[in-house]
Amino acid sequence: MMRTRPLKVALLGCGVVGSEVARIMTTHADDLAARIGAPIELAGVAVRRPSKVREGIPAELITTDATALVKRGDIDVVVEVIGGIEPARTLITTAFEHGASVVSANKALLAQDGAALHAAADENDKDLYYEAAVAGAIPLIRPLRESLAGDKVNRVLGIVNGTTNFILDKMDSTGAGYQEALDEATALGYAEADPTADVEGFDAAAKAAILAGIAFHTRVRLDDVHREGMTEVTAADFASAKEMGCTIKLLAICERSADGASVTARVHPAMIPLSHPLASVRGAYNAVFVESDAAGQLMFYGPGAGGAPTASAVLGDLVAVCRNRLNGATGPGESAYAALTVSPMGDVVTRYHISLDVADKPGVLAQVATVFAEHGVSIDTVRQQGRQDGDGEASLVVVTHRASDASLSGTVEALRKLDTVRGVASIMRVEGE
Amino acid sequence: MMRTRPLKVALLGCGVVGSEVARIMTTHADDLAARIGAPIELAGVAVRRPSKVREGIPAELITTDATALVKRGDIDVVVEVIGGIEPARTLITTAFEHGASVVSANKALLAQDGAALHAAADENDKDLYYEAAVAGAIPLIRPLRESLAGDKVNRVLGIVNGTTNFILDKMDSTGAGYQEALDEATALGYAEADPTADVEGFDAAAKAAILAGIAFHTRVRLDDVHREGMTEVTAADFASAKEMGCTIKLLAICERSADGASVTARVHPAMIPLSHPLASVRGAYNAVFVESDAAGQLMFYGPGAGGAPTASAVLGDLVAVCRNRLNGATGPGESAYAALTVSPMGDVVTRYHISLDVADKPGVLAQVATVFAEHGVSIDTVRQQGRQDGDGEASLVVVTHRASDASLSGTVEALRKLDTVRGVASIMRVEGE
């Protein structure tokens, strides 16, 4: 039975994603109506530049007054695809207060203020959905918070930034250095003119905070996420990774501790074995690997960005929120009941691959091994290589067993103080084993 | 705010999956209560053999009278993990009539009677959820019917049977023949004593019918699914596949036609390029590749069977159905509004790899090529090989461009009538390009 009064949708932002949302709402109106049980109507589009020609959007729907739009009182769902913290945050809160539910693609805002926004949604008995905020079109938020609602997630390991995966894949497949690969990513439109948010891991860290919060039913703030970018990954690191049967990916890793009482979230480049499903994720694709008690290992793969893919996720949420509205119900809200401790990076336990430049003389290995032992870091393998250039230096590559990040940091600090250690060429975590 | 009166759950079946569901309901009771918003209580467990010891399940909950259990009237959710058509079908219908919603893992039943069961659920305003019916723990039904509800799915290409994937992976990696690989699968418990349902594609066909129905919002009956098993795949086929840069998988393929007006569903072994994400799905794992207008290419990967993984999917549904119940709402029901034509196999368009045994003499290639041309099947490549055994025969391997299955069948029929064609050694479709 189809309701005939349409549900009214306000669109905030009409850029790459917003224009796709508007287009699909128009071209697929009949399908959306059938799936929702009522037609939906684009009731207004808030933009910054009203003079820009926007094909398929009637001029009378365009407004520069987003606040007035969300305050109209007859809006059923506000779709926020502006991005950034303000004015998005105030507009979303205002939308709840004026009777609308919200679909957002705003990872930065959700990572920073998710708890407050969920609280505002709850107070007003409205929905806040944001599948598009993490990994674009890949269904991830819904599987984590609904499909796995009867399971216990222990780890989320993901490639959640397409730009950096494109760069690292290029370095891996061509032997290019970081700058060369970045230049190509920029030329092809995969990297922005200022790539900082991507290459320094800010974007991935926001997604890690959101994923960890949902996976562990615990509030994880953006500040809780340890973040390292990938600008210092070198061609030599890829060569080392290959020797280990690994490649290098920028990973977002959310883990429950072995005792189950605490969680950690972090973003950094890491070696993963070539046999791991994440190792073969190419180009700008995203993929997220989820490990849980009962389901075991799951992987979700797809395009992590782009107008149409992100719009697909937004529209899936829009259908769900509209359905909830017709049902007079709301979907699952924030679930933070577990309230586990979010531990600092020092508590993370993993393996490490460390390249040292050392003096090429007897006894160095013994010295180095002693430092590892003193800090409780057990060595798995060591490879020692004299240099061809005869400068009296050698390379020492150490791969450790599992140890805490704090122990490893202590080890490295002590190594740097040894006369025979000329430099720590690289430290890379080894994940996914 | 937690409701204190528990929701009552009746479990039908307590085998590999059912016992895991009961176990997790007990061990994770607090988590489930927090996620649902009310505690859940195992109110009864219907089994065939009541004398069997079932650890952790109080004896007073065990009954052999499943009908009385679902008729009790105080049951909120019936979890059906008996499998098979009867008595499962009658029990589910009876459950709806007596006020319960249903979570089922029963692919055979859903594929055969999904429409009638959905109608029964709707009439009684109850939920029917069945994430566990397809690909075990992999969230697939929910992403297709919710996450992609605002998108247009064009193709679903999946490895949905772990037994056959284990066998084919073994044949690929070791060069073993079908029987040898099957024996190993049986020894390791991946194949049942009677492997017919798996190796003849019946299991995958049921899943294909369910997936096609949801993906295309169209009723697809089990009879509509073209089905070929994989018992005739040979080591020689794998050798041919390797020459093409391919491997062989048993695929469930649900496709929308190019004009969008009809759909097809089929299960058969096929070559897929090694570069395709499905090619690297190893062992008994399942994976489903989904192509849609806006999202592009998505893949969902994980364990497709087993007690704990299937229980994970069942429990995810149980949480959702319980939440709906507390909300006084129901989730998305059957969506068959599109009512597209389901076309027969003859209308399927794909590429083919055909191996012919032919007389080793001049003019044969011209004859063969003429037959293809007469049937409108365009040849991409031909490879002709004289045999070492000097028996006057040669091999001709033809790879076609895209053509309808009907045209290809006509071609093969005509080829068999040629004096110079001694036999058609194999015909294999080529997918995923």
Question: Describe it for me?
Answer:
Chains A, B: NADPH binds at residue 107. Chains A, B: Belongs to the homoserine dehydrogenase family. Chains A, B: One of its GO terms (molecular function) is homoserine dehydrogenase activity. Chains A, B: Keywords: Amino-acid biosynthesis, Metal-binding, Methionine biosynthesis, NAD, NADP, Oxidoreductase, Sodium, Threonine biosynthesis. Chains A, B: NADP(+) binds at residues 12-19. Two copies of one chain form a homodimer. With 433 residues, chain A is α/β, with parallel strands linked by helices. The first copy, chain A, folds into three domains: 7-137 and 307-327, NAD(P)-binding Rossmann-like Domain (Rossmann fold), CATH 3.40.50; 160-302, Dihydrodipicolinate Reductase, domain 2 (2-Layer Sandwich); 348-430, ACT domain (Alpha-Beta Plaits), CATH 3.30.70.260. Helix content of chain A is 36%, strand content 27%. Chain A is built from 14 helices and 18 strands. In chain A, the strands form two sheets. In chain A, strands 7, 8, 9, 10, 11, 12, 13, 14, 15, 16, 17 and 18 form a twelve-stranded mixed sheet that branches. In chain A, strands 3-2-1-4-5-6 form a six-stranded parallel sheet, sandwiched between helices. In chain A, helix 1 crosses helix 12 (307-327) and helix 7 crosses helix 8. Chain A is elongated. Chain A starts with 6 loop residues before the first strand and ends with a strand. Chains A and B meet through helix 2, helix 6, strand 12 and helix 12 of A and helix 2, helix 6, strand 12 and helix 12 of B.
